[in-house]
Fold:
Amino acid sequence: MTPQDITGGPPDRADEELPLARVYRAGAKEQPSAAIDARLRAVAHAATKSAGTGGIKTKRWAVPFAIAATVVLSVSIVLRMFQDGVIETQGTVPEPAKLAEKATTPPPLVEPRRQAADEAAPELRREAAAKVDQKKAEDTLVRERVDRVAPMSKALEAKSSRPTESPAVAVTAVDARAKRGQLADVIKVQVSGSPGAYNFSVTIRSPDTGCAQYADWWEVVGADGKLLYRRVLLHSHADEQPFDRSGGPVPIQSDTTVWVRAHMNTTGYGGAALQGSPKSGFAAATPPPSFAADAATQAPLPDGCAF
Amino acid sequence: MDETTSDEELMLRYRDGDARAFDVLYARHRGPLYRYFLRLAKPTAVAEELFQDVWMNLIRVRGQYAVRAKFTTWLYRMAHNRLVDHYRRVSSAAALTCQDDPDDGTMASVPDAAFREPESEFERRRLAARLLAALSELPEAQREAFLLREEGGMSLEEIAETTAVSVETARSRLRYALAKLRRRLIQDDSGAPIDESRS
Structure:
């Protein structure tokens, strides 16, 4: 029974409700647009491919498996440290001859005790291997590359920690670091669809506080700086971080390299951006300074912030 | 998987990775949920945004899904919460969280009018346009009760559960909504196909 089945309707519907319900039904015909339908379906399908059952559903064996794996790993590390001499038995002094032997004799490929531990837990190893295989398969199927902001943050930190050439440069570096906390980062891009009409699902982390400070759009920009698509965000996401927003269709080919970046209504561009193509996937990259800065004035632009 | 497959079964299948189950589920509820937001949030762009928020949330939390209630109750509970959050942010109305509707005391005189079925499709559409206009003027809580009834196909108990109020409050909101709509249509057009003999 669908909600539109009036006669089947609510079980407690009184007869006198029916005429009004029928009149309402005669006028209530609105449907979401085909573009919205396509985007949501694409995201829903991609989610099943990329993350299996998704969410935080836990399997019954997950906790015991994790504990067992931790124990096996810990024991292996301790044994390895003991054998390598990192951990010495209290009160013993290493003999020079043994130390020399240790230095010249390569460790066995598989230590006997570790091998024994592995043999004692073949099930765990099989499950771990299966999980690795599953992850590889998922990566191949979805062509999705999850790119963290960390590499870019490290790059920025490395850049800012270089010896400063002048006070002006130092001030600029400090400003950049201060500004960085106020920028919108694109941290993940999922692409679905077909050449000429790809749908993008973009995950953004931004320091939204409300309409006074929020990420107001994400966009797809060509390698030449041409604005190809912009998804205007109608409201802030102060309580939903990071957040996903889908958009499209983006008129590119499977091997077209593009940038995906986000924009803050206060500080503009400058946050982490991802570069790639539907075919190759997307990875963190740093666009040239002031790359396609004039896109900020191009339509479509936000005409308000709902909340 | 066909038309007889329940919403709950479809959601379980989607939870377990069957993307086709989502398609069926979405096809069933896209229109009703869209109209729910369309009549409770303005402008249309915001309604579309909220509509997408709910589906994105469903996709995100699918792994946690378990059949504890009707699927529609679960879906519209998410929608209701999203709407309350929206209202809170825009501070336009707190009606959805109010236990008492502001005009409860004025409803004693609302006639219990009943409709005759309009004889022509043209007349039905004309009346429907007036009904939608009248609906937009209802307090949000009453409007939501009506929409959960008509779009969500919910019983009073389900409306109460979805909106986190008592069954009596849900009953009251729905009754007032229906009465006001009838009264408004009577006032708009006394010659319309409304049977006032029962009022």
